[in-house]
């Protein structure tokens, strides 16, 4: 169950819609939510049946949000964030999901008195299976942190970091991570087709194998390493495949290089 607080969502693109759907599904009262989205159309308004406005100036003047979520693209933050300066008060926390925008950056636009949480969700939030990692500045109270956690848990699991610099690592692992797994599924599917399976069965095999393996890893106390060893019989088919994947130029080396590249790019974007 999400918290019973007044919430303002700024931006309602794919991630904004995923968050909004999760909040409403988990008990956030429709009357407590306002959304600022310049491109809102009838389809979007009919889907959620809540208060949509085109700009911050169109908000009910009596509406005082306790949580403001910035779900807009990083490149428009310079123009968008200052419009919400009038909402800065101790009772209001600002939660940003914009990649590469630090709490110091947000403080420069909202003043150092603002309570700010920076978070990094991922695409799986769209199906309620997301992973979000967050960092708070010193102004955020225990209650505000707890409420933000509940809001983010509406679309998946939540973790917190004490050093904001680690957000680049988080971005490289979970933020970009879904694409890595989609690529693995894609490669398995293509290999199955090349070996003679029809495309429908090839995709089903790849997707169900990936989701089943992930669920096993979630539900057992055993490490991924132990699970791998359990399914690998000496002299068997899995061992033959793993000799390739775990070779000197195999998956571990490639994955490490990929994550480092993503982390580096995350730092570059922040600068």
What features would you highlight for this structure?
about 270 residues; alpha/beta; ProC C-terminal domain-like fold; 2 domains; eight-stranded mixed β-sheet; 8 strands
Q: Care to describe what's here?
A:
- Helix 6 packs across helix 11.
- An eight-stranded mixed sheet has the order 3-2-1-4-5-6-7-8, with helices on both faces.
- It folds into two domains: 7-164, 3-Layer(aba) Sandwich (Rossmann fold); 177-270, ProC C-terminal domain-like fold (Orthogonal Bundle), CATH 1.10.3730.10.
- It has helices at residues 14-25, 42-48, 77-80, 103-110, 142-153, 167-175, 177-194, 199-219, 224-231, 237-245, 251-270; strands at 7-10, 33-36, 51-53, 67-70, 93-96, 115-120, 130-136, 156-160.
- Helix content is 47%, strand content 14%.
- The chain is built from eleven helices and eight strands.
- The protein starts with 6 loop residues before the first strand and ends with a helix.
- The longest helix is centred in the last third of the chain and has 21 residues, at 199-219.
- The chain is of the alpha/beta class.
Q: pLDDT below 50 for ≥5 consecutive residues: which ranges?
A: none
Can you tell me the CATH architecture of the largest domain? 3-Layer(aba) Sandwich
Q: Roughly how many Å apart are the termini?
A: 37 Å
Helical coverage, percent range: 40-55%
Q: Specify the structural class.
A: alpha/beta
Compute the number of helices. 11
How large a portion of the residues is in β-strands, by DSSP E?
Answer: 5-15%
The first-level CATH class name of the largest domain: Alpha Beta
- SSE pattern, N- to C-terminal: EHEHEEHEHEEHEHHHHHH
CATH fold title of the largest domain? Rossmann fold
**Radius of gyration over C-alpha positions, nearest whole angstrom:** 22 Å
Largest sheet: 8 strands, mixed
- The geometry reads as elongated
In CATH, the homologous superfamily of the largest domain goes by the name NAD(P)-binding Rossmann-like Domain
Biggest sheet, strands in spatial order? 3-2-1-4-5-6-7-8
Q: Say how many strands there are.
A: 8
Tally of individual domains: 2
How much is the average pLDDT? 94
């Amino acid at each position: 169950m999400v918290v019973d607080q007044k919430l303002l969502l700024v931006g309602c693109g794919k991630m904004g819609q995923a968050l909004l759907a999760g909040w409403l599904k988990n008990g956030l009262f429709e009357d407590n939510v306002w959304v600022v989205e310049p491109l809102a159309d009838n389809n979007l308004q009919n889907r959620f049946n809540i208060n949509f406005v085109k700009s911050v100036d169109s908000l009910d003047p009596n509406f005082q949000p306790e949580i403001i979520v910035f779900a807009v693209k990083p490149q428009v933050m310079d123009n968008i964030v200052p419009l919400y300066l009038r909402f800065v008060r101790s009772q209001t926390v600002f939660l940003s999901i914009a990649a590469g925008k630090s709490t110091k950056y947000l403080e420069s636009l909202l003043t150092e008195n603002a309570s700010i949480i920076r978070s990094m969700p991922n695409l799986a939030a769209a199906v309620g299976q997301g992973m979000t990692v967050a960092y708070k500045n010193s102004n955020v109270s225990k209650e505000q942190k707890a409420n933000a956690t509940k809001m983010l848990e509406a679309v998946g699991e939540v973790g917190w970091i004490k050093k904001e610099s680690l957000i680049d690592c988080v971005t490289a692992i979970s933020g970009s991570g879904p694409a890595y797994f989609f690529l693995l599924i894609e490669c398995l599917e293509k290999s199955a087709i090349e070996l003679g399976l029809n495309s429908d069965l090839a995709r089903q095999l790849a997707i169900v194998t990936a989701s089943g393996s992930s669920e096993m890893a979630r539900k057992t106390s055993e490490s991924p390493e132990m699970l791998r060893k359990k399914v690998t019989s000496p002299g068997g088919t899995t061992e033959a495949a793993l000799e390739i994947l775990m070779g000197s130029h195999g998956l571990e080396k490639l994955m490490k290089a990929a994550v480092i590249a993503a982390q580096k790019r995350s730092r570059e974007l922040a600068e």
